Amino acid sequence: MANVGSAAPAFTLTGAVNNDDVEVSLSDYEGKNLVVLFYPLAFSPVCAEQVPDFNENLAAIKAKGAEVIAINRDSTFAHKAWSEALGGVDFPLLADMNLAVSKEFSMALEEVGITTRGVFIIDKNGKIAFKHVEDAPPNNTLSAEEVLSELDKLQ
Prior knowledge:
Shape: globular
């Protein structure tokens, strides 16, 4: 179970940053804070607000010593098309097509085959420092501004 204070589950996923293929592992972010967005589906209305919000605030997030990645069950091909439709996304959109990583973070909605919406902050030591899981879509989607406030607590 991925809870605050526990070690973040290790993973390696493929995906895209804009139109480039990437392979990303949790270990790539060793010594950095990492914001992990889990979201249900590319091209969906709430996701199409949340991911651009984090992209627009990426410089501010990086200024606080953190990086951003996003994970859902869509394919790398879908991520590339969605990034293009959004005008570009400058952080990795990662494909968890079998929901294995989503399950490790307790973010898989297996009955419908998607990832639920949530945000984790993994600290420089690989521990989960913050966890927010949306309980009633889209009533409590976490904004980049709220994540920036949480990152301040890690400084």
